[in-house]
Amino acid sequence: MPTVVIYNRLDCCSERLNPFNILIGDSDQVASNTKCGGDHQIDLSQPSISVSCPGMTGRYVGVRLSGSSRQYLSLCEVQVFSNAVALPKKWRTDGRCGTGFPAPGADPGQCDPDSVSPCCSPHNYCGATYWHCDCGNSCVDYRNTLG
């Protein structure tokens, strides 16, 4: 369940945030995405408001004013927190990989896709050279394969 935290301006113009909508979805056109709840209001004496958006997913998060399009939106900051479940690591800490080198949750063991050595060589070592990542069918490139 994503959580969106909106920080209002406290130096001036704090009334320019109310009422507002939060929209979440895969369209870069904010108005096309789904609203998280209805209209939201922030108490003008409060620096922030936290809004939970259960069951919502999307690449884009937008904040817009409700009602007339002739208003000015003014805010300080928006933070978006995903409560995604962390996937188990499928690689070893010793740099070994492949068949014969299982890791928790993976057999064969993989290489850490976010490390400097994301590919498994034909000799079962993680690395990033041609022999590790660009060796045809004899090695495995684990970059971008989490899931």
Structure, explained:
Helix content is 3%, strand content 24%. With 147 residues, it is mainly β. The chain folds into 2 domains: 3-81, Galactose-binding domain-like (Jelly Rolls), CATH 2.60.120; 88-147, no CATH class. A 3-stranded antiparallel beta sheet has the order 4-1-6, with no helix packed on it. It has a 3-stranded antiparallel beta sheet with strand order 3-2-5, with no helix packed on it. The protein is elongated, with a radius of gyration of 23 Å. The model has no long low-confidence stretch (mean pLDDT 87).
Percent helix: under 10%
Poorly predicted sequence stretches spanning 5 or more consecutive residues: none
Number of helices: 1
Quick one: CATH superfamily of the largest domain? Answer: Galactose-binding domain-like
Largest sheet entry = 3 strands, antiparallel
How are the strands of the biggest sheet laid out side by side?
A: 4-1-6
